[in-house]
Amino acid sequence: MTDNSINVLVIGSGGREHALVWKIAQSPLVKKVYCAPGNAGMEGVAKLVPIGADELGNLLLFADENDIDLTVVGPEAPLVAGLVDAFENAGLMVVGPRKAAAMLEGSKVFMKGVLTRAGVPTARYEVHTSRSEAVAALQRFGAAVVIKADGLAAGKGVVVAKSRDEAVTAIDDMVVKKVFGPAGEKIILEETLIGEEASILAFCDGKNVIMMPSSQDHKRIGDGDTGPNTGGMGAYSPAPVITPELSDWIEKNVMLETLSTMAGEGNPYKGILYAGIMITAEGPKVLEFNCRFGDPECQPLMRRMKSDIVPVLFSIAEGDLSNTQVEWTEEPAVGVVMASKGYPGDYEKGKPISGLEEANGSPGAVVFHSGTKKGPAGEIVTNGGRVLCVTATGVTVGQAINRAYEAAGKIKFEGAVYRKDIGRRALER
Ligand code: AMP
Ligand code: GLY
Questions:
Q1: Which ligand is nearest to the CA of 122?
Q2: Alpha-carbon dihedral sign for residues 183, 189, 190, 194
Q3: Centre of ligand 1 from the C-alpha of residue 157, in Å
Q4: Span 85-106, mean pLDDT?
């Protein structure tokens, strides 16, 4: 690899992808960064390509015709659909798991099976396909039970039920009404775990892992973790609940055990592995795996990554991280998501956004766009539920929080909502 020689394609359009193109574009190795389909915030760092993340054939054609040396996949759906298989079969370098390995996120039943065979601690569970058997099984779980659709359900396929009625409704929705279609043909009933959650991400080459610093998401829409679940309203890194000892334990007993089990089954996992972990009184237990970077966790993580990310991504695509090191800043980073009024329900689009330049000029701040586009007069307007992720670093987590909110305060659009307590849990510790 020589300087200024590599063309990179990032697939996706959210804040995670903006943070990735922002980081990749800083590499001296890179000639050009493309993002398909991308968003308005990326202009200046990436060339937008009007191809959707689900248009596998068109993406392959684009990569082939535009001398793309490395492709990085943001969201899970193209991975589960087999994008990496298609790119690798065409001789292209790509970062992400093949379809069979992406099933760690694509099927919760598959994931639970891997965890069990790998001896990784996780919640006790049963798999069901029939309503009557699932309802009868509830007595084995007590009042608090979690119902999960097996397949991808855009983050909505998990119900943490607080009563038997709620559990039965969830079973009916998934198995009888089929609100998630085929994704809910199989369901998991699972014991409710109590504790604090953290996101643990690692770079994986099929055999070796390089752990990223810990982070924590804020999934509920409202302050104090109230209201409906969202894709994530903010994140910070590091998460103090993950001590260095816990991180080492998770690396060895979760990440490496999972990788060696999958490799042993002829299904090696290569790409980014994201473990959602509950730190319970009995120790860490895996809630879920994602086969990609988290959004919004990726945004503070990219702010903290000191090393050039491009050689790391290349080593993953080549399948050998054994000679790669990654350095991170000690400084904490915080990301506050600004959303459209009504999200995660219905919301309006097309609201002009002001103050972006002032926010980006604010101390320690970088604003990543999630759902934005160019309006008719070239102005930037809202184009999604999650609109922006305002990140900041600081010497302390307190300073990072203050700086993120100072920057967010400079941004205005009609109906803007954001949580006021991102990172507070880290402050309290
Ligand atoms: P998942 O997609 O499986 O991570 O579920 C989404 C969210 O539901 C998690 O981030 C947790 O907040 C919650 N959750 C999932 N499984 C459990 C469980 N067994 N006990 C408690 N909360 C859970
Ligand atoms: N932040 C949660 C996710 O990316 O799934």
A1: 1
A2: positive
A3: 10
A4: 98
